[in-house]
Each structure stands twice: as C-alpha cells, then as structure tokens.
Predict the 3D structure of the following.
Amino acid sequence: MFERLKEDIHSVFHRDPAARNTFEVITNYPGLHALILHRIAHWLWQKELKWLGRSLSTFSRFLTGIEIHPGAKIGRRFFIDHGMGVVIGETAEIGDDVTLYHGVTLGGTTWNKGKRHPTVSDGVVIGAGAKVLGPITVGVNARVGSNAVVNKDVPEEATVVGIPGRIVKKPLDDEKTAQRRAMAEKVGFDAYGVSQDAPDPVAEAIHTMLDHMHLVDTKVEGMCKALKDLGSDYCDQHLPELKDKDFEAVDVAPKDKR
C-alpha cells in the first residue's frame, strides 16, 4: 500500500513541473487524493462491501470533483492532472503510467451489464475534455487529443484527434520530413503542423500539399533540363522572389480622422 503511494507521488513529479515538494503534492493534488480513495474503495468493492465502496467513491467525488467507480481497475503510477470533471466507469481498466487531464470521460455506450467501458493500455495520455466510450481498447503509448470523441479501438503509438476520433498518421520518415521542411522554407511558408509535435488533420493536409509541390518542382526542374539540352534558354528566366512581407497581415481598419 505504502509502496504504491510512493510510486503515485513520484509520478506526479515526473509529469507535472509545477510540483515543488512532497508535502505540497500530498496536500494539494486532488488527482492523488482521488486515486488514494479509489484504491481503498476498490478494495472494499472486491471484498463485497459494495455500499461502503460506493459511498467512499461518492465522498471522493464531493471532495475532488473526480468520479471513479469503485469497480474500475487502475494500474500503477496513474496520474490525473487538475482532475475536475473526470469520470471513470465501473468496467474501465487502466494500465500503468497512464495520464488523464481534466474533463476526461471513460464511459459506456450501453445499459447492458458486462464489459461496457474502455481498456486503456500502459503509457496512454488522454487530453482535456476527451471522451473515450464503449468497450474499446486504447493501445500502448497512444495519445488522445483534447476534446476528441473516441468509440473505436486505437492502435499502439497512434494519435487520435477530432469528433469522431480520427487516427493521425505519423511522418513517413526523416527524409520525407526534411523534404517538407525544405519546401516550406522555399515558398516562404512557416507551416502550422509541419513539425511532428502537433499532428492533426490540418497538418496532414499541409503535408500532402507540400509533397505535391515538391513533386511539381521536381518535374519542372526535369523539363527545364530537357529544354536546356535542346538549346532553349526559356528556363533561364528567374522566378520572382517570395518575400515574408508579402504574406504579412495588412491592417485594413479605417483610421480615426479626428
């Protein structure tokens, strides 16, 4: 019990840079309070003291704003950041080193008894406001974006965003990523989402556009080489330079003439 508590406290320091010392974590982190109370409530639930377990769960919700059913199974080093509004259903199963942010729901989609809540594997991070619904499995080290609604299985290492949840593909390889970055720099475009740090559907659309532009650029260079071999100087003409100021926002609001 105390060994688990030490692990839970240390997990806060690993995942929250605002944590300063152990006393502060023990006294001021509702996610930790909810987890400690859940472990007791879950023990009572397993001992068939279900009313006591459920009552302790209700008290924990009143105290922390986090609702965890005493039947839910939670692994080691579980961390709820901020916590307010988190709901975890009865048949939910959570692995080790999982992180949830505020407003997350691990909910069911049916009133039938049996397995009706998600299974969240080791190392998963679920962003603020996300809803993971039904007896689905979220794979190891997967990421669920803020406010996403997920009702289908999520593969390992995948990132899911949007409503309904859509799996975001990873960059193809380092060469492809460098190629996209070079094309973005060539056209003077600081592309949102071009980096690997914030993948989403908009970024995927931008990646596709940059890939297309690179292919067109390659074909034009090939045609210019062929024309030059035929003695044409058509491709010696330089394209106009793209300047950053041409893409800057212009203030079109009328000026005060007073």
Q: What stands out?
A: The two ends are 73 Å apart (CA to CA). The domain at 2-168 is CATH 2.160.10.10 (UDP N-Acetylglucosamine Acyltransferase; domain 1). The chain has two domains: 2-168, 174-244. The first strand starts at residue 67 and ends at 68.
